[in-house]
């Protein structure tokens, strides 16, 4: 089950099974899992007022439903999920759309001990019409079958420090943002590089919720839902899927970012420490950059959201200690870019 | 976060954010949370046979999805949710409808200690066409910002003892009730003022279920889902949202009230004691009144449903002790009015 | 509540209440409960490519939603659910369909102690157009009201050892199976009588998940969701609904049976030991028979799936010990027949 280092070759294309039709049921479950309140994704009236024909799917939900497909082929038996880069959300996804994913191997690096290696893939998710809805690169460490023979293979791709921002952004021209509907008064112009938002909410995650979510995403990495197996590991219990923490942090960031309803990109992310059932997730966000776009209805914010477990975010000054090591309660360090309308769209 | 006593003024109108489109996903989740078996809400065939074009949404689910919107503005930091009155459900809501809510401040009363006060609001929920779907009054105690200055404000509205019953009731003329579909043989004529129904079922609620429900309703009162915060309070754990108990009691009341498929009004309610994960909810119902209406296909029953935790309802004679204090296991005392077809509609 | 032995008579027809409209919400919840990955049920693209107009509902989900209706009348107070036979799934069910069920009493056998008896029923589920979607026989032991009088009634029906296979199978002609979509390369021709598949996944079930599922199915057998009551029984806690284990075993069997996406029949089943919250379910499958059909696009496999709790399936050689008693960790012994396309359909 799962692939070994030798099963991959540069340029190899992997069609991931299980195209998935996204439904109203998935959307309701996502709100139940996260408490997410971004109005664009929970109200057809808000979506049409803005300029959409109907509600688009929350980008993070779409990410999980699409990404989940690649676990079987790429990371089922991974020793470690090392990183991801250049994640972008090129087109909106709607209820009834069917998403699927293909990956191409873009790098391979044998570890010097000969026992394992790193596989780099470029994964592209499309909808039923072939339009790109997700695009990202990730790298995982996997076992070698033959631990005796050194191959010396070392082809390491380079990644952009941040997902490039395109000339064209595929969301409708924003006709108007009703601040009484979105719940937030802040527009692009109101954010400043360097400012920090401490989000007030904390949400506790239990075993049933996180395993229901991971199973909904058809992500079959067994560490997340096999308690019997995990009891014999140092963790001693089921590990929460890292995507759950991304979702909780994004939902919690609503307070202060109510009108930033689109993920444009994830530039990089670190799952600094594991989370388990019973942990309460908090978050704060730093504005890394304020980015103008040629479109005059919207701008972009590059954000860094730090998720913390069982500790209020205002108690954390920096996620790392003086030696550059993540503090034990920091569980996510996410660098991402959101789209936010300009004040002129305010109704 | 949240409003203080001084933030409110008589006549002030508050448009609550987050209009919400109600979907099949919400309906399925509601059945999963409660086990509700009222046929009108889970079968298109039953609904059309009765005279509907399609299944209407369960009134209590609609209440939660609409009410949840007002928490942020009215009660996020409430010291106490003191009461509600004159709740009515003026029009049915269907899948695909988008509900939103507005509140008007109708009363303010500073407490004599100067530290807090009571805010009274009148809240109206509408669908995407502006038709009223929920109408109620509630009052909450909130902190004052300036605890030193006494304002002496005291404008207290009066409330009807029971929600008035209108000449027109906005449900279709009931063409027929198939007792083999609804599961119940009892019609309006079969109930007598003063009779009591002990409902046999008890349902245990766990942390995942109640927090999933509260998050689905986008009710962000933190006492319900932040275990880290609650551990440092006298409760020591997450408090279940009172609406969960209303839903469970309503679902449990199915046995004996199978054909009373419409909430017409909630006249008053007391959340007598808190409920926590692991509690098993039981309920019994007293028929307070049997009310004829000018329509000859339906009548109304005024009911009092008492929900009890971890104790069979037949063991409780009255919810209060001889001093008028609620017994420790009583968790809800709900006075409400339901619509029930007359025997002539029986198929 | 619930029926006693004397309430049943041979030939008696029972129309079970609560016709149920099946929605996208039910389907999403089912995926969340089980992690099921059969592509036909989660992708409209896959379904139409195969020859369907749209995704059919997973047969096991449909079974639960339809079967749940009979609990109130047949088995609410059953002393034991003794068995079932000749379960078949005659027609596909789609989102939006409304299923309902009727049972006929086909056998009655008083127990020799005079205190209880066995009731045999034949249950038929239909969709809103009257097409049969589920057909099965089951027998349950129920209490007698009058434990003093011996009636001597003994009419015991006989059952086929396996559900007969019909000339016509009501699934569309399979146009093509895209193995990159279904995730599996094995077709009818690849299976051999006697072979065994150890499925690698184990899934832990918690109280919230299994009670949410059982409530969604509107199965109101109280042993599954009343913890207060169960604490005073030898079990000491809520018992998981046996159907949950069938669903988990079926979902886990995906690995190795990816293209066997249709339940044709359940021939027999034994719930060998109870399962509780916290148990991790594993499974293995034996191929009992390889069955040709006159259709040349498909064949059938008769399978025996053994579900085991808290033990890897490869550690179990046979589910029973040398005395023919089930091993303590075996929780399901299911004999069923699936449809699987032939290799010629491969795309």
From TrEMBL, chains A, B, C:
<dbReference type="InterPro" id="IPR029069">
    <property type="entry name" value="HotDog_dom_sf"/>
</dbReference>
<dbReference type="GO" id="GO:0016829">
    <property type="term" value="F:lyase activity"/>
</dbReference>
<dbReference type="InterPro" id="IPR048274">
    <property type="entry name" value="MC_hydratase"/>
</dbReference>
<dbReference type="Pfam" id="PF19315">
    <property type="entry name" value="MC_hydratase"/>
</dbReference>
<dbReference type="InterPro" id="IPR052342">
    <property type="entry name" value="MCH/BMMD"/>
</dbReference>
<dbReference type="InterPro" id="IPR016790">
    <property type="entry name" value="Thiol_ester_hydratase_Rv0216"/>
</dbReference>
<protein>
    <recommendedName>
        <fullName>Beta-methylmalyl-CoA dehydratase</fullName>
    </recommendedName>
</protein>
């Amino acid at each position: 089950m799962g692939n070994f280092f030798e099963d991959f070759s540069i340029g190899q294309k992997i069609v991931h099974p299980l195209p998935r039709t996204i439904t109203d049921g998935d959307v309701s479950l996502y709100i139940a899992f996260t408490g997410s309140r971004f109005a664009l994704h929970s109200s057809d009236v808000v979506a049409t007022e803005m300029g959409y024909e109907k509600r688009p799917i929350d980008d993070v939900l779409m990410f999980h439903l699409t990404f989940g497909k690649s676990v079987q082929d790429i990371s089922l038996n991974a020793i470690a999920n090392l990183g991801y880069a250049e994640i972008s959300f090129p087109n909106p996804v709607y209820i009834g759309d069917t998403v699927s994913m293909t990956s191409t191997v873009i790098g391979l690096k044998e570890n010097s001990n000969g026992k394992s290696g790193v596989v780099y893939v470029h994964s592209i998710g499309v909808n039923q019409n072939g339009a790109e809805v997700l695009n990202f690169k990730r790298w995982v460490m996997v076992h070698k079958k033959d631990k005796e023979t050194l191959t010396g293979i070392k082809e390491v791709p380079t990644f952009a420090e941040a997902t490039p921002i395109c000339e064209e952004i595929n969301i409708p021209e924003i006709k108007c943002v009703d601040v009484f509907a979105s719940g937030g008064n802040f527009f692009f112009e109101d954010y400043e590089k360097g400012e920090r938002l401490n989000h007030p909410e904390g949400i506790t995650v239990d075993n049933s919720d996180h395993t229901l979510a991971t199973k909904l995403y058809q992500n079959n990495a067994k560490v997340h839902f096999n308690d019997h197996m995990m009891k014999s590991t140092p963790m001693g219990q089921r590990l929460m899927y890292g995507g759950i923490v991304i979702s909780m942090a994004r939902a919690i960031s609503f307070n202060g970012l109510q009108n930033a309803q689109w993920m444009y990109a994830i530039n990089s992310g670190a799952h600094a420490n594991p989370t388990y059932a019973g942990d309460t997730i908090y978050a704060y966000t730093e504005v890394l950059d304020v980015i103008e776009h040629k479109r005059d209805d919207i701008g972009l914010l590059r954000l860094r959201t730090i998720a913390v477990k069982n500790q209020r975010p205002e108690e954390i000054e920096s996620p790392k200690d003086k030696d550059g090591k993540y503090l034990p309660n920091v569980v996510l360090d996410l660098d991402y870019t959101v789209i936010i309308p300009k004040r002129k769209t305010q109704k």
